[in-house]
Amino acid sequence: MHPTDAEFVFLGEHPALDFANTYYAPRGELEDQLRSWPDLLEWLRQADLGAGPALEVSKAEAPAALATVVALRTAWARQVEAILASKPVARDFLRILNAALEKDHFSEAVAAAAEGEGTPCELTRSASKLRGLDLAMAILCRQIANFLTECNLAYLRQCAGHGCVLFFYDTTKNHRRQWCSAAACGNRAKVAAFRERQAQQKK
């Protein structure tokens, strides 16, 4: 794998949102963090979603494979924005997800759990037989499908920070989280509010 200098953020509280967040503005201007296939492989590794030779593609296949993944991310980000606007998920987008998921085949089996586990048995799944782009798309689409079917979409948020485009799933107890990061956007907002109050007091 070639080295990558992409700056990934994992503030979304769900891999599907972290995937959408690979296009963001770390220095004030929007930047694509998935500029090469190795960037995607490194993101999948850091997200703990997959790694290894099965995800590799040839040098000749890499540009088209990356374009397919980026197109998925663009379509997904639009759906996230639609959900935030109280609009339904588009059927065309669901067809994209299902087309990727239908390619994957696996089997499940019940096995004895490790000693000390709370339950005596666990459900195991066989490894995917997909490779390259098909495997990457199945992994990503499964995470998106998981988010759409298992998460409470009322807790989907976009950072309130000025110029910040990051999405996150609000897992806080009172569901009042506003910022992608309290240490970053949250702190900047507090500083801006403080300066605004000082300016008002001087008038």
Please state the overall shape, judged from the principal axes of the Cα atoms. globular
Portion in strands: 5-15%
Count of individual helical segments: 6
**CATH topology-level name:** Jann2411-like fold
What does the oligomeric state look like here?
A: single chain
Main β sheet profile: 2 strands, antiparallel
The number of domains is: 1
Query: What is Rg?
Result: 20 Å
Low-confidence stretches: 189-195
What structural class do you assign from the helix and strand content? mainly alpha
Description:
The structure is a single chain. The chain has 203 residues and is mainly alpha-helical. The protein is 45% helix and 10% strand. The protein has helices at 15-20, 37-46, 62-84, 91-102, 132-150, 182-202; strands at 23-24, 31-32, 108-112, 121-125, 156-158, 167-169. Strands 1-2 form a two-stranded antiparallel ribbon. It has a two-stranded antiparallel ribbon with strand order 3-4. A two-stranded antiparallel sheet has the order 5-6. Mean pLDDT is 88; it is low at 189-195.
